[in-house]
Amino acid sequence: xxxxxxxxxxxxxxxxxxxxxxxxxxxxxxxxxxxxxxxxxxxxxxxxxxxxxxxxxxxxxxxxxxxxxxxxxxxxxxxxxxxxxxxxxxxxxxxxxxxxxxxxxxxxxxxxxxxxxxxxxxxxxxxxxxxxxxxxxxxxxxxxxxxxxxxxxxxxxxxxxxxxxxxxxxxxxxxxxxxxxxxxxxxxxxxxxxxxxxxxxxxxxxxxxxx
Length: 211
Description:
Helix content is 42%, strand content 7%. It folds into two domains: 1-39, no CATH class; 41-200, no CATH class. It contains seven helices and five strands. The chain has 211 residues and is mainly alpha-helical. A hairpin with a 5-residue loop joins β1 (42-44) and β2 (50-53).
């Protein structure tokens, strides 16, 4: 009986500590020390409307905006409630066909781009929601974005370069560029892009800062 009593009390104390006290303390500290990050690193427009998060990729189909990595999150991709990869192995024909189709589409959409299509533009991340691209993958898209906006490529490249984030703590990871923040910077620098006609929009969820 004594053993049962100890087990019950231990269980109750553990539930209170790990299920109530610990989560509330950690949440409270996060709200005090890192309020913006604790709230989801939300990004707002000039009117204060939430249009995304720095941490979650969005799809952009308008050629005047940089496009992120493809996504396998959810049925149509970029579903923040269903973060996941495709679970297709490197020997999967379906995966290879998907990559080849994406590479061909990007070549058609970026006829003035030089060099090979960056691998990250045809492969999804493990989460399906990676908000960053390498500087090289962003620069590869510069000719298309510049042409769609009617500005010199060097001016668009300057926006990309201004948004490069260095390695975390100077040693972790690689330099990267946040796609959403760079697209917002394009709008601030050159004005919002003209929205695509309805018949040209992808049937998947597409978020444009012009909307």
